[in-house]
Amino acid sequence: MEEKMGRRERKKLQSRKAILDAAVEQFSRKGFKDTSVADIMHEADLGIGTFYNYFQSKEEILFCLLHRMAQEVEQVLDDLRAAHRPACELLAAGCRITARFLDENRYVLPLFLSAADRSGMPGGFASGEGGGTAPGFKSIFEIILYEGQSAGEFRRDVPPELIAEMFHSVYQAAALSHLDIPFQENVAMKTKLLLDGICVRKEGE
After folding, report:
1. What residue ranges of the chain are covered by domains with CATH 1.10.10.60?
2. What confidence tens digit (pLDDT) does each residue in 49-104 have?
3. pLDDT of residue 155
4. Domain 59-198 adopts which CATH fold?
5. Which residues have CB under 8 Å from 30's CB, separation 6+?
6. C-alpha to C-alpha distances, 13 to 6, 7, 17, 30, nearest whole angstrom
7. What is the pTM of this model?
């Protein structure tokens, strides 16, 4: 019985992943607005009714994609922390990974930007998996900023929450930029300027 349940669960996970992957393909090709549930399920080679066994709407898929992104960011940050890397390096890495994901999945950008005002810890994504609150990526930056201030790496005369807002706004500024600079490079340049402004320089640097 346990083996049978195991196969059933694996099949469910495979179907869910197939739907997510198909949605990414269709959103990338046709855009979020012009992609229908039928398009997604045709791409996944599954019946339309199966969609609603896993998701309530197309919008819920965006939450799940953001959840994927947060997991990727946090895994890299955990690895850097384990290697005792400085907070400035963690912040730069988090910004870089986020920029790459948003550049490759532009249809997620509006939800990502709105998340700044709609939730707290990225760990609270469990609700995002089920279509709840949009994940708050700003809090990922806040945690690093608190760590950096405690370690004396970042200036302490500015609240971490304010600095985190500035980092979060970089993505919107890059997305709306009229400069002939690719999105990821635009984010990287703005990120460097912010880091230069908040990092405490040691003597001789």
Report:
1. 1-55
2. 999 999 999 889 888 888 888 888 889 999 999 999 999 999 999 999 999 989 98
3. 94
4. Tetracycline Repressor; domain 2 (1.10.357)
5. 39
6. 11, 10, 6, 25
7. 0.75
pLDDT digits (tens, 9 = 90+) for 106-159: 888 887 877 654 443 333 333 344 333 344 567 888 999 999 999 999 999 999
Q: How many residues does the chain have?
A: 205
Q: What residue ranges of the chain are covered by domains with CATH 1.10.357.10?
A: 59-198
The topology under which CATH files domain 1-55 is Arc Repressor Mutant, subunit A (1.10.10)
